[in-house]
Specification:
The protein is of the alpha+beta class. It folds into two domains: 131 residues, Peptide methionine sulfoxide reductase (Metal Binding Protein, Guanine Nucleotide Exchange Factor, Chain A), CATH 2.170.150.20; 41 residues. Helices cover 31% and strands 23% of the residues. It has a six-stranded antiparallel β-sheet with strand order 3-4-8-7-6-5, with no helix packed on it. A three-stranded antiparallel β-sheet has the order 2-1-9, with no helix packed on it. β5 and β6 form a beta hairpin. The radius of gyration is 27 Å and the shape is elongated.
Amino acid sequence: MKTQQYTDEQWRKRLKPEVYEALRLGRMEAPGTGALLHNHKDGIYYCAGCGAALFHSRDQVDDGSGYLAFSMPIQDDAVNVEATYSDDGSTVTRLVCTQCGGRVGRLSTLELQSDEDLTKGTVERLYQVSSHAVFFKKALTVRNYPLGALVVLLALVAGAVFAWSWSKDLIATATLEGVRDAIPV
């Protein structure tokens, strides 16, 4: 993937302040406060810096950390992992978008804590993501658009009824004409 190169000043102008702090400075929001934390729709999470696809909602897990978490990226090369140091000297393993170099979150080795996650099986590492570092696009599914699916279903039924009615009339007309032609005058 091609890396987008901007100066720090260009990134500041392009991004909202909270997105800049997440992507360029690697800051995470407070646990439990992320706007996308409780998103249960089908779709894809994209990097807020460059729009690269990073995670799919089917891989989203509840790890009990209060952060948006995934069992794997959408592709193996969507994010890179790099070790950095925090202010207190501890090592933090950051998730970096391979497209733009934005710090989208961190890698965690916490064990899954919810019953639902335990039924899926354990994973060795979790990708914890800042809600400010990504944006979400819903997939066109029945789960996301139940009313739209109902409208499509009704349109299909109406079309089938119309086609049946039209073909019934056509067959009846053809049969009458065939009978008229068979009667000698």
